[in-house]
Structure formats: structure tokens, C-alpha cells
Amino acid sequence: MRRYLAEAVGTFCLVFAGTGAIVVNNASQGAIGHPGIALTFGLIVLAMIYALGDVSGAHINPAVSVAFAVSGRFPLKELPPYLVAQIVGAFGASGLLRLMFPQAVTLGATLPAGAWQQSFVFEVVLTFMLMFVILNVSAGAKEKGITAGIAIASVVALEAMFAGPICGASMNPARSIAPAVVGQQMQHLWVYVAAPTLGALLALPVYLGVHGSLEGPAVESDSSAAD
Fold first, then answer.
1. What total number of domains does the chain contain?
2. Which of 165, 1, 120, 133 shows the shortest CA–CA distance to 61?
3. What mean pLDDT is reported for the chain?
4. 3-state DSSP: the chain helix, strand, coil percent, rounded to 5?
5. pTM score, two decimals?
6. What are phi and psi for residue 35, nearest 5 degrees?
7. Is residue 17 part of a domain?
8. Confidence at 141, pLDDT banded by 50, 70, 90
9. Is 219 contained in some domain?
10. C-alpha angle with apex 10: 5 to 15, nearest 5 degrees?
């Protein structure tokens, strides 16, 4: 139960801080700015990894949990409660933001700036990169584990920085589902569920090709993910 609560709290904090930065930026006429939003996402991921990694692995991302389960690093029976906890945490954050900012239109929902195909490809590649890094830093030397949070958070901030204006740089179905549903912006929601999941799964065979094995720590790891 502690693991599920940790995932709910971690995902709540991620969505509240990350999408909250977008909402506050819009409400304050751009006081935070795009770089500030990208940095916020990276910093909250970093904080949650170090705060909750030793409890749940701090997946805080359904795509990451699915990929870990498929890789064998994470018990399949734990996947449904993890997904439920992540979604509950995300909806709690978006619901609170709606109460605080009733005038907000999108609540930080991820929406394609151009064609949905463009954002789909972006999200696949971004989540592939994120998951590939997660797989690499969640196994191996102890020193690598200590710095795993920095590596993962840096990828999140980097990808949000350069891809956010086009696709929203979700890389996380829970982060996209909650604001889309609460903010009633569901026209392209499927893109942000399917593409990150596909991208995370594509990282598995590439990691296997590079390292020859998918073995590594599971729930107990200090590393995790994402946006």
C-alpha cells in the first residue's frame, strides 16, 4: 500500500507543479516563460525520484511502469494498482488546479501545435529517449544509482525545452489524461496515451541490443521516471 500511495503522491506533485507552471504562466502573462516551465518539470521529477524512489521506484508515469513490467524488472501483478495510483494522483492535481484557477482553459493539457502526426512522432521519440536513459541509470554501479535522478530529470527538462512548443512534451499518459479530461480538451488525447507507451516499449529492444540483457532492479530502485 505504501508503494501505491507513493505513486499517487508523486504523480500528484508532478502534475500539480508541471501543469501548474503552465497555468500560472498563462494567468501571469508569461511571468514563468517556456524555459521556466521546462525547468519546473525537470525539477519536480528530480525531487520525486529522490523523495520516493526507495519506496516505489518513483515511476510516476504509466508508460514507464508498462515498460518496466514488459522488461521483467517490475512484477506484472503490481502494474494495475500502479496505473490506478498514478491516474488518481494526476486527477487530484488537475482537480485542485481547476478549483484554484476556474478561468484556466486547458489546465496545461498537451495539444499538438501542428498536425497530430507530428506530435505523435515527437512523443514516441521523446519517450523512447527518456525510457532508454531510465533503463541505463536504473542498473549498474551504485554511483550511477546515486546520480540517476539528475540524469532522468535532465532528460525531462531538455525534451520539454525543445519539443514542448510543438507537442507539449508529455512523455507521460497520466500527465496528459488528467488535464485533458478535467479541462475538456480530449480531441487529441489518444496521441498522448499511445505515443508515450509505444516510445517506452521501443526502448526495450534497443537497450537489449546495446547491453545484451534487460536485467536490472525493479521497484526497489532509486531511479524512475517522468513527465
1. 1
2. 133
3. 92
4. 75, 0, 25
5. 0.91
6. -60, -35
7. yes
8. low
9. no
10. 130
